[in-house]
Amino acid sequence: MTSLVNILLVEDDEVDIMNVQRAFKKNNISNPLFITRNGIEALEALQGKNPAMIIPSPRVILLDINMPKMGGIEFLNELRNHPELKAVSVFVMTTSNEESDKIAAYDLNVAGYILKPLSFEGFIRAVSILNHYWHLCEMPQL
Amino acid sequence: MFNNLSIRTKVILGQTILIAMVSLFIYSYYPRQQEKAAIKAIDSKIQSLINMFSIGVGIGMGEMDFVAVSEALEWAHNDSSIVYITVVNNTGQNIASFIAPGHESIDVSGIPLSRKPVEINGTLFYKTTIVYQNTTFGTLTLGYSLTQSQNTISRLKRTTLYFCTGLFMSGVIFSFLVSNMISGNIRELDATVKTISSGAENVRVTIHSNDEVGKLGRAFNDMLERLEHSRKNLVRYSEQLKKQNEELNQFSYVVSHDLKAPLRAIFKLSEWIEEDMHGSMSEESKKNMQILRGRVFRLEALINGLLQYSKIGRINVPTEPVDIRVMLKETIDLLNPPPHITITIQKGMPVLNTKKYPLQQVFINLLSNAIKYNDKEQGLINITCSKMPGFYRFTVEDNGMGIAPAYHQKVFEIFQTLQSRDTVEGTGVGLSIIKKSVEDMGGTVTLRSEENKGATFSFTWPQSV
């Protein structure tokens, strides 16, 4: 590992953002965390169109499904069709237990589909496992 | 055999047989009748001739008047059918005779004296005694040729044959015409019905006759009109239903996400507040926080129940072979009943082709209720099955706390619980899901129970889908 993985959180709910931030703190995760509130903002940031938010590689995306303007599945569609961004690892983190959402997400090559546990304890564990995952995996440095 | 024939063939066949019978009857009866009449006429003619001869010859021979005899002979000549006359007196002397050419060789000596004629070579021979004023003078032999009357009869037979053949032919033709007239409309009706049943739309019967078939055709058109109308309505309703179903799907999705998100936030925030206070929170506040999170759990369970209830029958579930015994074992494993509960499954559970998911859901809900509401030291749950026409009846019987008859209706309504949710955590969705699932499959649910005497839930499930 030469550099820490940069994590982009695409999430519209403030409490859920706090949730992730808190879970990072609890797990002593020091990876840079970038936050966008919907798919459009996330795409702009990833393409470097937002000067206030430059996300260097390697990158991992934590994606919510239900968001205003551009939802998670729509965002994934755009991402996978983008020549430079199509290889980015995406974890869906959502409350949606709909079979149709899971199928659509895996069709778009997500690295995992995680149902947000109701309790914070559960969420801390989930984030800890994710942290182990991206520490374990080698990412291209492009 | 006749059932397979068309109406037209039946009519033609019937009429042809009838005409054939009439023709045959006429042909066989009329000429014979005429023949009998002719023979009778001949007979009476001969009798009168014999009488005449008897008188003539009697007078003639008694007074030796041969002129009278030959006059009688003369008179007999007028009838060309009389071909043979001999008058012989008592002494055997031939007094008068007339034999037409071609009849000379006939030997009449063998003919007995009788009122009845004897036929020899197409000639009727009569031999009688000549009696005048009770005195016998001799014998008279008279030959009457049948050739003429036979000719007449055979001519008559021929004419009758022609007539009957003509009658038969015209009868057959007539029956064809009539049956065409009758069955033409029926055949048109039949053809139209076939067109419609093969899936054609906007087809109407075009029969303008005023008879029964015409009326039937008009009634049929009316029926088609109404059918078309109701079909259009049905299509409209089903489209409406489809749209509403989609809206409902969208609605349940929105409910699942949008109602749950704030709940989760409340839950987490309460956890964080507690955490951030680092134990400086009073015991009462801690307890209140616990209750708050308990209510959040309950609301989420209610939302989940509502979602589950709204999904019944709207989701296409595949049909598969289900071994009920295996499915029940799986279900019991899933529910993991406490050790004081004993669940028995009757032997001989069926294997059926059905929608497994809703059936298993029904059993999960029934069994989890039976487990949850069992207050006995030894909890007993018994699952049985019996066969009914087209259905299986499954029964889950327990020795739990039971349900008073007053509430038997109410327990099947959504969100209805008989105990405070604080006593026994339950959403009140389980039985309503059972009822909806079973009724969705065309079955029924019944409950037999009294307070403190256990409960017996039975439901019927179709043997095949």
UniProtKB/TrEMBL annotation, chain A:
Coiled coil start-end: none
Pfam families: Response_reg
Keywords: Phosphoprotein
Gene3D superfamilies noted in UniProt: 3.40.50.2300
Domain Response regulatory: 6-131
Sequence intervals crossing the membrane: none
InterPro entries to which the protein is assigned, alphabetical: CheY-like_superfamily (IPR011006), Sig_transdc_resp-reg_receiver (IPR001789), TCS_response_regulator (IPR052893)
4-aspartylphosphate modified-residue sites: 64
GO BP term (any one): phosphorelay signal transduction system
Tree of life domain: Bacteria
Name of the molecule in the record: Response regulator
Species name: Dawidia soli
Taxonomy of the source species: Bacteria, Pseudomonadati, Bacteroidota, Cytophagia, Cytophagales
UniProtKB/TrEMBL annotation, chain B:
Entry-linked Pfam families: HAMP, HATPase_c, HisKA
Uppermost EC category: transferase
Places the protein is found: Membrane
SUPFAM superfamilies: ATPase domain of HSP90 chaperone/DNA topoisomerase II/histidine kinase, HAMP domain-like, Homodimeric domain of signal transducing histidine kinase
SMART domains from the UniProt entry: HAMP, HATPase_c, HisKA
Sorted UniProt keywords: Kinase, Membrane, Phosphoprotein, Transferase, Transmembrane, Transmembrane helix
All residue ranges annotated as the Histidine kinase domain in the record: 254-465
Protein's GO biological process: osmosensory signaling via phosphorelay pathway
UniProt keyword Transmembrane, yes or no: yes
Molecular function (Gene Ontology), one example: phosphorelay sensor kinase activity
KW Phosphoprotein (keyword) present: yes
Catalytic activity: ATP + protein L-histidine = ADP + protein N-phospho-L-histidine
Top-level lineage group: Bacteria
GO cellular component, one term: membrane
The EC number(s) this enzyme carries: 2.7.13.3
Record-annotated HAMP domain positions: 180-232
Transmembrane portions of the chain: 12-30, 160-178
PANTHER family: BACTERIOPHYTOCHROME, TWO-COMPONENT HISTIDINE KINASE
Record protein name field: histidine kinase
Organism per entry: Dawidia soli
